[in-house]
Backbone:
């Protein structure tokens, strides 16, 4: 039997349910793993061992009394932009250094209601934006772990927790997930409430998470999906049975997008992606190539304009008081937003609206779309968090996306495939992703 810290969410939940593993045993195993790795990897900004073990014991008593949920006893890392009642939520910034929320963010509340245990707060880039965090890539410390959800990706990849919350405004879930060799999932814009999460951009911010399997990603979505009166972009749309969707996957129709993505990918990434597509076709997938609409030409720049303007709207009061407490990258983004005129923002939003319509039409012809997850494996550059251009378009148009680990580059660093589904089509996307996961049969573990 593997060590408890090596278990996936689903494996651990099943063992806890049949009482072959206790929540306290699982929490203790993860805490020991963190103590062994954390001084080097810097994935956590807040952790209280005594509180975690006390909470795990309380969950154990609740289960003994017959009160169990689908995630009972499962410890989950929480990116440090999610409000956690009575626990600092600093966004890894001097600006929020003393902020302690009085309530939990909506996703945290829902996970707790499903029985999950909040393990601790994971490191993020400052306010989930530009400047790199101190977290270390466990595959090679000279390479970026990605961002902004860097601590969450590192923690899941190294067995410090089986799942961790992130967020994506451009590429902050799927990119670090791919760089660290784990599954990263971003649902449709509005599928999961953002209430109680420190914002970057109101029209782009999307909740997401890292796990080690597609089934685990579906299990977390089942707990968190749904409307919320506190979040005006979380509509009252029915929540399907995501676990049933991944239980019996069938071979999907895959639309491969090489245009733009292959133009910006290195040769190794192109060869690897083609080899994986061929493997999926040989396993029974129906594969065709899809062309991108002309609106793609301005999509990335328009997204950057929107993010800067909407980000500056949130930060402006604090920025006016304490600009120099911000790191250089986010400071430049806020200033760009403040300097952008209303006409420029309006035109960017108008072009983005056209792009959204075009991409919704494009995905309607297949079950999923497929691209490389990133242009290259993680590069040896610690001055930034990597290139966001492969994930950003899907965040901008609101479509759900997932990255699957698909192998190792010659450098020994992870590579991934990015799959995209229709808006609020998470059930189909997760089903197709589970089928691809089984066909590829890749499970990566860093050398730590």
Residues:
């Amino acid at each position: 039997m593997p060590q408890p810290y090596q278990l996936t969410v689903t494996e651990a939940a099943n063992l806890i349910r049949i009482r072959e593993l206790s929540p306290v045993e699982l929490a203790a195993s993860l805490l020991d793993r963190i103590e062994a790795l954390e001084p080097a990897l810097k994935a956590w900004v807040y952790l209280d061992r005594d509180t975690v073990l006390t909470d795990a014991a309380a969950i154990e008593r609740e289960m003994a009394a017959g009160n169990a949920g689908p995630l009972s006893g499962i410890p989950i890392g929480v990116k440090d932009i999610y409000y956690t009642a009575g626990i600092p939520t600093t966004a890894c910034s001097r600006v929020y250094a003393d902020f302690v929320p009085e309530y939990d963010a909506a996703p945290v509340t829902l996970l707790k209601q499903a029985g999950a245990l909040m393990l601790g707060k994971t490191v993020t880039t400052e306010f989930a934006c530009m400047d790199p965090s101190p977290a270390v890539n466990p595959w090679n410390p000279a390479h970026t772990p990605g961002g902004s959800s860097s601590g969450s990706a590192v923690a899941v990849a190294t067995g410090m927790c089986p799942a961790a919350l992130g967020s994506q405004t451009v590429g902050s879930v799927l990119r670090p997930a791919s760089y660290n060799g784990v599954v990263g999932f971003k649902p449709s814009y509005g599928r999961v409430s953002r209430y109680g999460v420190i914002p970057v951009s109101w029209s782009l911010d999307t909740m997401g998470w890292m796990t080690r399997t597609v089934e685990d990603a579906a299990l977390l979505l089942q707990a968190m999906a749904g409307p919320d009166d506190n979040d005006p972009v979380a509509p009252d749309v029915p929540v399907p049975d995501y676990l049933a969707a991944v239980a019996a996957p069938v071979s999907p129709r895959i639309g491969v997008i090489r245009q733009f993505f292959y133009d910006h990918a290195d040769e190794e990434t192109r060869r690897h992606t083609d080899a994986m597509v061929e493997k999926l076709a040989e396993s029974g997938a129906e594969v065709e190539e899809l062309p991108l609409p002309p609106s793609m030409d301005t999509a990335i720049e328009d997204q950057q304009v929107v993010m800067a303007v909407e980000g500056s709207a949130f930060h402006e009061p604090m920025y006016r008081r304490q600009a120099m407490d911000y790191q250089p990258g986010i400071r430049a983004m806020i200033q760009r937003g403040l300097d952008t005129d209303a006409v420029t923002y309006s035109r960017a939003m108008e072009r983005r609206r056209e792009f959204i319509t075009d991409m919704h039409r494009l995905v309607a012809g297949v079950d999923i779309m497929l691209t490389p997850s990133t242009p290259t494996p993680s590069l040896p550059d610690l001055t930034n968090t990597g290139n966001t251009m492969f994930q950003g378009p899907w965040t901008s148009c609101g479509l759900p996306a997932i990255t699957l680990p698909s192998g190792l580059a010659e450098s020994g660093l992870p590579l991934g495939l990015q799959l995209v589904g229709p808006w609020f089509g998470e059930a189909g996307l997760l089903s197709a992703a589970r089928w691809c996961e089984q066909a590829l049969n890749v499970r990566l573990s860093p050398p730590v």
Summary: The chain has a mean pLDDT of 98. DSSP finds 15 helices and eleven strands in the chain. Residues 54 and 225 are 28 Å apart (CA to CA). The radius of gyration is 20 Å.
